[in-house]
Amino acid sequence: MNRIVVVGASAAGLAAAETLRREGYDGTLTLVGDEPHTPYDRPPLSKQVLSAEWAPDRVTLRAPIELDSLGLELRLGVAAGGLDVANRTVRLADGSAVPYDGLIVATGVRPRRLPGEGAHVLRTLDDALTLRERLGPGQRLVVVGAGFLGAEAAAVAWRLGAQVTLLEPAPVPLAHAVGEEVGRVLARAHLERGVDLRTGVTVTEVTEDGVRLADGAEIEADEVLVAIGSLPNTEWLADSGLTVGDGVVCDEYCEAARGVYAAGDVARWYNPLFGVSMRIEHRTNAAEQGMAAARNLLDPGARKSFAPVPYFWSDQYEMKIQAYGYLRGHEEARVVEGELEQGRFVVGYRRGERLSGVLAVGMPPRVMRGWRQAIAVGAGWGEAVG
Amino acid sequence: MHVELDEPKCVASGQCVLAAPEVFDQRDEDGIAFVLDEQPAGDTLDAVREAVAICPAAAIRLVQR
Predict the structure, then answer these.
(1) For site-directed labelling of A346, which of A74, A93, A279, A309 has its Cα 20 to 30 A away?
(2) Is the pLDDT of residue A386 over 90?
(3) Domain ranges within chain B, ordered by starting residue
(4) Would you call B28 and A291 a contact, using CB atoms and an 8 Å cutoff?
């Protein structure tokens, strides 16, 4: 293998590129990214960057000297436009074509939007800097969507003195992901601080003055942030022959087609640890999957299935929320340590007869590691929660 | 090679402890990581490279001093 192309220059793409080099690959390595920036970190965008605690350059993932040492052909500021699997060529938006022997697709996701102009989204560094310019004391901010991103942004805006209205279509925020009990804890954190969380509210469009709701009412705002989830960037793969269905569909090795792997937010792969096909939009998964895809691409004979225990965290007000495992589609959620009211707890999630995930606030690391281990070994629900 | 940890960047994920338990641990009170062995060698150094790559906060660096 002499030519490897990694499409996507964020966490997953960078991890893949670094791993290829670390594992001894010394051929041509092209890293393509649609943003003009060198790889940077996204989780701080809705936290320290939005609050202006950090200067923008603090999110840079690697110093120039570290990037140089990888010997990359860096193609930044140009999106991928198409893929020809038969001829092993990636077409770029500027009309150029890049041939490959091995390909890693890590094109990530983009924010879903609402009809209407002028709303913010929060995915890129430029998005975060634009929104941060507009946030300040007395500013009226409407955040559409009380998922993790919307909640984090609301918390930061509140801390900056903005008047925040947080609109969520579900009766309890994040209930589908973390369960109703935890969702109510998160909701209470907003309400206690005076963030105007309104649930059961569907926004249909962004207007000149704010947002319009499904019942026709309007809510006025100086700024609107739309945080209603993401869509995988797979349009460039249309007609490529790859299977696309809410992400690039891969097997348990992260392989989408011979010599083509996918990693990060865009990859839907079969995780044998949980026995389900999943697509994970978490920072930790991006790095782990980028590394796994790179290793399997380089050494298919010794390839390993990618069977991680997913992990994510979220910072909302003074709460740090941490979760291991696969929480979606859980059949039961139960407090297994501590108490919700004290803001110090572990909630376990059951799927079938197994402990499939845990979510915790305010617990020491060794407690979390114990729960993670239980998920990693596929512990039964009964034995794990007692 | 020296292990450097940018503590304010650490998000307490503990991924480094999973990757290289001989080199990293976490504070009980807030989960922030700390370094046990600043100059790892051999297999342990490989484990630290894994930790550098996997840290979701890009808070760990291996530097030549």
Answers:
(1) A279
(2) no
(3) 2-63
(4) no
